[in-house]
Amino acid sequence: MNFEEQAGKSVLARAGVSVPQGRLCASAQEAEAAARAIGPVVVKAQVPTGKRGKSGGVKLAATPEEAAASAQAILGMEIGGFPVARVLVEEQAAIAREFYAAVLNDPASRSPLVLFSTEGGMDIEEVAATRPESLRRMAVDIRKGFGPADARRLLLGLDLGEAAVPVAAMLVDLYRVYRQHDAELLEINPLALLADGRVVPLDCKLTVDDAALYRQADIAELGAKEPLSALEERGRALDLKYIELEGNVGVLANGAGLTMTTMDVVSHAGGRPANFLEIGGEAYTKGTEALDLVLSNPGVKSLVVNFCGAFARTDVMAGGVIQAWKTLNPTVPVFFSIHGTGEDEAVRMVREELGIEPYDRMEDAISAAVEAAR
Fold this sequence. Notes:
Elements: E1 2-3, H1 5-14, E2 22-25, H2 28-38, E3 41-45, E4 58-61, H3 64-74, E5 78-79, E6 82-83, E7 87-91, E8 95-106, E9 111-117, H4 124-130, E10 135-139, H5 148-155, H6 164-180, E11 183-194, E12 199-201, E13 205-208, H7 217-220, H8 230-237, E14 241-244, E15 249-253, H9 256-268, E16 275-278, H10 287-295, E17 302-309, H11 314-328, E18 334-340, H12 343-354, H13 362-373
Parallel strand pairs: 15-17, 17-18
Antiparallel strand pairs: 1-13, 2-7, 3-4, 3-7, 5-6, 8-9, 8-11, 9-10, 11-12, 11-13, 14-16
């Protein structure tokens, strides 16, 4: 789950991190009133994506009238596919220096990774590509955590002067918030050193692990609602993990890993997957609903069914799909690949009840589906 800037800063504030004064506004009139109370402000589009400044979604306003005009210009924009319905009207800061700080999940080290750079306010991807030495990295042993000594070691030699102490404290706070809230990413760009010596986050990007939201009920309501297509809304209502794509090869597989592998092989074979939908766990009991969901996408020209069972029995899953096929009686060509526990019975069932011969190799089934979709 992604959080807009104001929601991310709200999470920081709840954790005791000092953030700039600001108000969330849904109209030019509200923005004008906020600026009248705050003083000179920055008016910022609230969408769960980056590049807002480059898109014209961040404007300085010295007066309430300018704040109203800025809000009027920003509200209704579309940034990164998200319509702007609200703006954050936030006090302007007397910035002395800008830094970059982040804590994120790092697949390479299989651990949290703390990042820091003295080049804040810029695209961190550009900094990492052109000046990698300016981006400090520290993998964290989650058994030990990240404390003040670790922060000081990460900042060693950066010539931060008196800012080194508050910056180190901020890094420790950010790691604490990241861990306490099951975050996948907590990014501050820029992290600002103000003229009065304070270090404050002027932006905040927060992403929380969807699988951990049941533990984060107190902040889940602050997260940005993901825009869903009509079919994705239907999938959510059915408690099926469905993502609609722009391809023409429908995919039905058990388990998220096998589903993604199937999609990758579809692409490798020159095709385009039409969806992500895995029916592992108890979802196989919704075979008819799952099949109908996949085939309701008018772009689907063929279907690949890929089952691989260990603890899950492929004959049970195949039985659900067979029943669904008989119920819905679709006309698109379907190609099966079945391996693992119960595969002999599953293959026999598909062959005898649907008159379809499953493929021995997953790659062959998928290649045939890609060809049929053409």
